[in-house]
Design brief:
CATH topology of the largest domain: Aspartate Aminotransferase, domain 2
Number of helices: 14
Radius of gyration: 24 Å
Number of strands: 13
Structural class: alpha/beta
Order of helices and strands: HHEEHHEHEHEHEHEHEEHHEEHHEEH
Strand order of the largest sheet: 3-9-8-7-6-4-5
Number of domains: 2
CATH superfamily of the largest domain: Type I PLP-dependent aspartate aminotransferase-like (Major domain)
CATH architecture of the largest domain: 3-Layer(aba) Sandwich
Catalytic activity: an aromatic L-alpha-amino acid + 2-oxoglutarate = an aromatic oxo-acid + L-glutamate
Family: Belongs to the class-I pyridoxal-phosphate-dependent aminotransferase family.
Keywords: Aminotransferase, Cytoplasm, Pyridoxal phosphate, Transferase
GO molecular function, one term: pyridoxal phosphate binding
Largest sheet: 7 strands, mixed
Main location: cytoplasm
Length: 480
């Protein structure tokens, strides 16, 4: 078996800011803090004896979750008690004396090593020199990526409909966003190729994409399209930033025939191959930056994520983190690491498998309600196979007042439907809130309207109730 190649050097894509960063001399000096031969009088590190926290203790469900994950434990065998002390007790724990101290901006080695092994199991990056660096979730990771690779006035690529916080982050950093054409699966490679072949001016350095369970559309890009887009990235020399908080919320295809729904029999051994290939797993050159997070698989408030990238670029992220976030939360690192070490790699994948089952049930419930209540005379949708969102397209031209009131501004009709829904008691988000407008071309406004819903945030009865209200709103607006 041949050795994996080294990454292609992509440091020519670094921003002026990133190129100008120097290693923190104080951080370099901290390596002597734990040297028993040296009395350290140089670092502003308080003694752990003065930390008021002697230990933290949390309870969790214990692997292998035989009764599922939406249950209360019935016995001690189903309950996992995790206690992290100030001083080391368990070999793989991050003691509070370490996690609550100023530390390595890349993250505690115990947690980084766990994530590295997890990354090898799931993605097996096909080049040698890749690294993990912890973040405060994907939002911070994206902001850090923008600062590391772009200068004010640069243009980046993103899906035509994308996560509004991500686009706002880019705009507030002075970037222009060129929208890439999508369908309900995701980016259309042929359209991206055409867009770049006719590009005028400096080519963009980054493609920002949410390829799995896309926010807002819920679409999941096939392996074949990812391979095609990766080849385009090689041809036009840009970096793919895959923002993947929903990657493990993948599901079987939806069927409205409840009797045809089968039990998901995925196991630890078959789980990696049940997932759509990530860009990282296709990356032979180190031109993919993967943003990953525990927000959607453990808890959003953990504010703990990580970046996977080639070593040359990880070093630049590290320099930036040293003077911005310093390090991800010590409490979060100790608690999450304590949980994962006790679950182990197999237990964590057991959790992800059970999470997949739970989201599949919620997705099925949502789509059952959409099928029952949303009028097909004016609406269309594709059932998502990942994530927590569904995307409904409505033909605005069939509205009785479209020609006289909304044809010149279809987004006003989206807003009217949104406000009607709020009045009647349901919140569905208008599609134009996520739309990236093409500043280079002007075209007639489309009569296609879109609404994003989620099946993750409410109970199944509320889900059914809310979608019935939304269906009634559409019927009332369109006179059905």
């Amino acid at each position: 078996m041949s050795a994996k190649p080294l990454a292609k050097d992509l440091r020519h894509h670094l921003s002026v800011e990133a190129k100008s960063r120097q290693a923190s001399q104080l951080k370099v000096a901290f390596k002597h803090f734990h040297d028993p031969r040296i009395i350290s009088l140089g670092g502003g590190l308080p003694l752990p004896e003065l930390f008021p926290f002697n230990s933290i203790e949390v309870d969790s469900l214990a692997a292998p979750f035989k009764r599922g994950i939406n249950v209360q434990p019935e016995s001690d065998d189903e309950l996992l008690k995790i206690k992290i002390a100030k001083q080391p007790t368990e070999s793989n724990d991050i003691p509070l004396s370490v996690s609550l101290q100023y530390g390595n901006s890349a993250g505690a080695p115990q947690l980084v090593d766990f994530i590295k092994k997890h990354t090898e199991i799931i993605h097996n990056p096909p080049y040698q020199d890749w690294e993990i660096i912890l973040t405060v979730g994907n939002t911070q990771a994206w902001d850090s990526t923008i600062r590391t690779f772009t200068n004010r006035g640069d243009t980046i690529l993103a899906e035509k409909y994308t996560f509004s916080s991500a686009s706002e982050c880019a705009r507030s950093n002075g970037l222009k966003i060129a929208p890439v054409e999508v369908d309900l699966e995701g980016i259309i490679p042929e359209e991206l190729e055409k867009q770049l072949a006719n590009w005028v001016g400096p080519l963009p350095k980054l493609l920002y994409t949410i390829p799995t369970g896309q926010n807002p559309t819920g679409g999941t890009l096939s392996t074949e399209r990812r391979q095609a887009i990766y080849k385009i990235a090689q041809k036009y020399d840009f970096i793919i930033v895959e923002d993947e908080p929903y990657y493990f919320l993948q599901m079987d295809k939806y069927t409205s025939d409840k009797s045809a729904r089968t039990t998901d029999n995925v196991t630890y051994d078959t789980f990696p191959n049940s997932l759509v290939k990530s860009y990282l797993s296709l990356d032979t050159e180190g031109r993919v930056i993967r943003l990953d997070s525990y927000s959607k698989v453990l808890a959003p408030g953990s504010r703990l994520g990580w970046i996977v990238t080639q070593s040359n670029l990880a070093e630049r992220y590290l320099r930036q983190h040293e003077v911005t976030i310093q390090v991800a939360s010590g409490f979060a690192q100790s608690i999450v690491n304590g949980l994962l070490q006790r679950w182990g790699q197999e237990g964590y994948i057991d959790w992800l498998i059970e999470l997949r089952k739970s989201y599949t049930e919620k997705r099925n419930s949502a789509l059952d309600a959409v099928e029952e209540y949303v009028p097909k005379e004016v609406a269309d949708w594709i059932p998502p196979t990942a994530g927590m969102f569904f995307w409904i397209k409505i033909d605005g031209s069939k509205h009785p007042e479209f020609a006289t009131k909304y044809e010149s501004d279809p987004h006003a009709l989206e807003t009217a439907i949104y406000e009607h829904g709020i009045k009647d008691g349901v919140l569905m988000i208008p599609g134009h809130w996520f739309l990236i407008k093409d500043e280079k071309t002007s075209s007639a406004p489309s009569s296609d309207l879109f609404f994003r819903g989620t099946f993750a945030s409410v109970t199944e009865d509320k889900l059914q109730q809310g979608l019935k209200i939304f269906g009634d709103v559409i019927k009332a607006e369109f006179g059905l």
